[in-house]
Each structure stands twice: as structure tokens, then as C-alpha cells.
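Project standup — Tuesday

K.O.: blocked on the structure for the chain from last sprint. Re-posting the sequence here as requested.
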Amino acid sequence: MRTHELDKTVYNLLVERGHDVKDLIKTTRVNNLDLIPANIDLSAAEVQLVGEVAREQVLSRVLRPVLDDYDVILIDCQPSLGLLTVNALTAAHGVMIPLECEFFAMRGVALLIETIEKITDRLNPRLEMDGILATMYDGRTLHSREVVKSVVDHFQDDVFHTVISRTVKFPDATLAAEPITSYASTHSGAEAYRQLARELISRGDAP
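H.V.: unblocked you, prediction finished:
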């Protein structure tokens, strides 16, 4: 079903009372992967949550009934520091920051880290930064190489060793509505994400 044809999405969970999160969860063709859908309606939630009591904790409350049903819950955020992102950070245990290999993107990372520190201090003391992930990397360009070097110099151990290179396979997989790991399982992009998963798990296991 197309997203604009959905009767209920995460938008309804956030701004309306009386919905059960379990009723909105959709299974996928990928084993052990479920999702809660969203569409353009979610863009209106930012404004409607402003008047809510404990507005920063709405998503945390919505997800609470299913926390024990999953090993991992991933919250995909828009590239902004608005109320929806604050909700995600308040509900999360860890945050992974994807950084496009462009110098202007580095300023956004610095602002996001400031926001994470404020939320850890005021709303969610369990929140930790899992790491910064360099994406859209093109090793043929000096610009990409310099951005990665600058990020590592500045953030050091907070940067994942894994780097996600630019490839047409990612938008192709998106159009096919399929993970890159199954759409093009032998492609270097798929292997990069497998390596990222291994690195993320190893960081979680570290004392």
C-alpha cells in the first residue's frame, strides 16, 4: 500500500489519544523486521505537539508497550533539530549520526551533539552517542577525503571505522523497497552496512 493511502501512521500515535501502537505495526518481507509507517502527515506533528504536556516524551510513551517485543528499535529522524528529533532522542538509548561527506554537514553534527548533551542533562540521562557515520563518501575526490580526515581529527573515537560510499545501488534499493543487503547482497555497499552492524555490536559489548 502507498504511504499516502494509509489510514493510520505514526502521526496518529503522536497527536491523537486512543491508538494502540501494536495495531499500527506492519510486517515486512524481511524476516524479523517490522515497521511503523509514516507519510507527509508527520510534518504537521511538530506544530501540534507544541501544546502537549510533556511534549518531549510523547514518542517514549507511545513505544513503551512494545519495548520488550524487539531486540532493537530504530528511530529514523529527519535532518532537523525540531521537536520530533527531540522526542526521538528522549526515547532512545543511543544515537548514530550519519554525516554526508560535505564540509557544511559538519556544522550540523556539532549542533546535534550540543542538543544531545542538553537532552542527556535534562531529559534522558541514559542517552549515549553510538558514533558518527561518514556517508556519501567518494574516495576519488579530495573533498570527501578531507572531510573524513577532519571529522576523525575532531571527533576521534566517536567516528565509526566503517565508511558508506556513494553508489547508485542505494537509491535503486529504495525504489525497490528492499534493504541493500538483500537487493544487492554481494555489493560493497551491502558489505559496508554489515560491517557497520558488526562494529556497532562490538562497541556495545565494550566495557
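K.O.: great, moving the ticket to review. The CA atoms of residues 75 and 88 lie 7 Å apart. The mean pLDDT is 91.
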